Structure formats: structure tokens, C-alpha cells
Amino acid sequence: MSKFYELMPGARRQQLGDMELLERLAGPITSETSCLDRMSENVIGAWRLPLGVVPSLVVDGRSHRIAMATEEPSVVAAACRVSRLANACGGITSHADRPVTAAQIMGCASPECARDAVRWIGQNVQMLLETANRCDPALCASGGGAFALEAQILEPAPDWPETFVVAKLFVHTSDAMGANAVNTMAEALQGELSRSLSGYVPGMAILTNDGAGRMVHAHLSIPYAQFGAFAHCEGRDIAVRIARACAFAQRSPERAVTHNKGILNGIIAAALPLGQDTRALSASILHEAHRTGAHKPLTCAELREDSLEFAIHLPLPAGFVGGFKKNPSVAAAFAFDGITSYDELCALLSAIGLIQNLGALWALVTEGIQAGHMRLHVRK
Ligand code: MEV
Q: What pLDDT is attached to residue 1?
């Protein structure tokens, strides 16, 4: 008898039984199911989310539509509301740092061997970088590749008596998210270290989701007069309330975590149809929020003479190229959103995070969010 993973989706369903329940859970078997089967493991169908649209958001001078997959109607409604304000203010501007992903190659050694290992790694950086880059000639040809390596010792701690040697490899991932490329390089280096270092016990080799090398910045300047016209009240007053909400999130980690959840509402909804690794995005973004040791908001507000300056700074481990784009629906989402480069992808994801947060704060400091939630609920 074939193993479960070897079966076709329809045959898997037969084996699971209760076809009516499976049809409700995973939809009908269609011509698309075999494509889904190639994308994941033990596939029996698809699980769907509503897809909403922000018809226009101007980012870096270009109008984009944004497809958003979410079950929360107020997420799309708030993004639409703030997109109209943002567009009237001239749109959002953004900047993405050169994307760098790092990997950790970890092993254990006695304190003396650990010191020798760190010295040896330092003396052989060039050879080790060449070893890493041989793993991915295509990445190197596109202008990316491994470019730095540093090693450190983590001293024994009360919970674990061994000394860790950690080599950190830095890779410019070009237009890719780069997880596979970086992990392949890290494992190649682990092999090299295991062969070359005496007393070194290999532990693991894996990228870190610390996105310090993949920061993206987006900014919106809202003249008080424009805000007033949109909010039908005194624009500076509303700007002060929003700036106060950001200050509150700076002081209160309990508020900051909810503030940042609102940012993720927008980013995850926009990233899902684009085939992005939403778990990596969440991990990096939340780690960044906690970088100082306390949870901090990822947006900031500044009150100027005539305007509110609203900005977001966050890491985005996003990918513009990769196998995921063979999925026809992902390729369609890129075309629909009008994303033609890695920078545009980062611009759009950071912009949606920014307007999502602004929309949530705008509602929270005025009528509260329940009124909008309930209006949408009743309409359903
Ligand atoms: C709800 O999904 C998101 C909010 O809680 C975000 C926030 O409080 O800033 C409204």
C-alpha cells in the first residue's frame, strides 16, 4: 500500500473518509489541486480567505492597488480610508536598506579549542566566504553573495556548561528573501569547520530571523489642514491625539504589542497573496520591536509647525524572486499590485503597515474601533 504522502489529493481524501466534511474543509478537487499538491505536503485541497482590495495607494510617486487576504473587514476598510488621506497628502515615501541576511554556524568546544577556533576562522575568512559563495553562483551573478564572516565565543552559563563557538555569516541576498541560499551556505561552512577544527563539535547551521540587515523605512507627511478636511474636525487636534497614542505605546509595552499587532494586520494581509513567508516577517518584525529589551512601537509620530510626520521603521525579510512565483496566483498578485522590483515590494509592505497603524490610531483616539467594527458587522 502507498504511503499517505505518495497518494494523490483525491486518494488521500478517500483514505481519510468523511468526504462531505473534507469537501467543506478543503473545497472541491479541481485542476488547481495538483498544483497545490506540488507546493506543499499531504495536500487534500485549499483553505481560503476573503481577498479585499485597496484600490489606490501612492508610494514613491506610483499608485498601487493592494490585494489583502484577511478575514477582518475593518483591516481593509481602515487601509482604504487612510489610503485616500495619504494620497491627498502626496503619498508615502520609502527606502529599503541593501538586504542582508545573516546565518549562525554553531558548535561546541572546550574553552581552549573555542579560542583556537575563533582565531582560525578569523585567519580564513576569505577562503570560507569563497566556500559559501560557491554554493550559489546565481546569487553571486546577480550582485549578491556572502561578504563577511565573524566569530565569537559564548561562555558557559549555569543552564549549560559548554562553550559555544558561533560564526556569523552575512549574505547580501539581492532580490531574494534568500533563506534557502543562506542556509545552504551555512551548512557548507559547518562542514568546513567540522573538517578543519580540532575539538569542534558541530551543533547547527541556520539563518537568523533577526532582520537587522533588512530594514525598511516609510514616511507620510500629513498637513493639519488636510487631516482636518478628511476627519471633519480640527486637524492639529487629531494629530496631537495620534502622537500621544504613539508616546503611550513608547512607554507601555502592553500597548506597544497591540499597536504593532495593528501593523501586522496590514502587512500579513498584503504579504499572503504575494507568497511571502509571513512567519519570517512576523518573527523579524516582533524581534525588532523588542530590540531594546522592552516591546516598543514600530511607528513614530512627530508634530511639526503645520504637519504630522508619521513614519515606520521595520525589517522586512521579503522576496521578489524565487520559486514561490511559479504559483500562478502569486504571480497574479505581483501583477495586480503593480510590484516590479524588490524595492517596490518593500515599499508597499512598509506603506501598508504604516497606513494600517495610522488608521487604527485614528479610530482609537476618536470614535473608538468598535463603532466601525459594528457598522461593518451589521452590513454583513
Ligand atoms: C485590531 O485587530 C488591531 C488594533 O487593536 C490595533 C491597535 O490597537 O492599534 C485596533
A: 67
CB atoms within 10 A of CB 308: 24
Q: Which residues constitute the domain of residue 279? A: 51-97+215-379
pLDDT value at residue 106: 98
Q: Is 52 in the pocket of ligand 1 (CB under 6 A)?
A: no
254 ligand 1 Cβ < 6 A: no
72-93 tens-digit pLDDT: 999 999 999 999 999 999 999 9
Annotated catalytic sites, by residue?
Answer: 72, 261, 277, 373
* DSSP state for residue 224 in the 8-state scheme: H
2 pLDDT exceeds 90? no
Task: Tell how far the Cα of 316 is from the centroid of ligand 1, in angstroms.
Answer: 20
Instruction: Enumerate the H helices of the chain as residue ranges.
Output: 9-16, 19-26, 31-39, 73-88, 111-123, 125-134, 137-141, 179-196, 224-231, 235-251, 253-271, 278-289, 328-337, 342-364, 369-379
Q: What is the pLDDT of residues 286-341, one digit of tens each?
A: 999 999 999 999 999 999 999 999 999 999 999 999 989 988 999 999 999 999 99
Q: What is the CATH number of the domain that holds 192?
A: 3.30.70.420
Cβ(97)–Cβ(66) below 8 Å:
no
Q: Both 244 and 320 in a single domain? A: yes
Percent of the chain with pLDDT over 90: 92
261 alpha carbon to ligand 1 midpoint, in Å? Answer: 6
- Tell whether ligand 1 has an atom less than 6 A from the beta carbon of residue 360: yes
In one letter, which amino acid is 66? Answer: I
Give me the helix-helix angle, 369-379 and 342-364, nearest 10°. Answer: 100
Domain count, the chain: 3
Residue 151 pLDDT greater than 80, yes or no: yes
How far is ligand 1, taken at its centre, from the CA of residue 190, in Å? 43
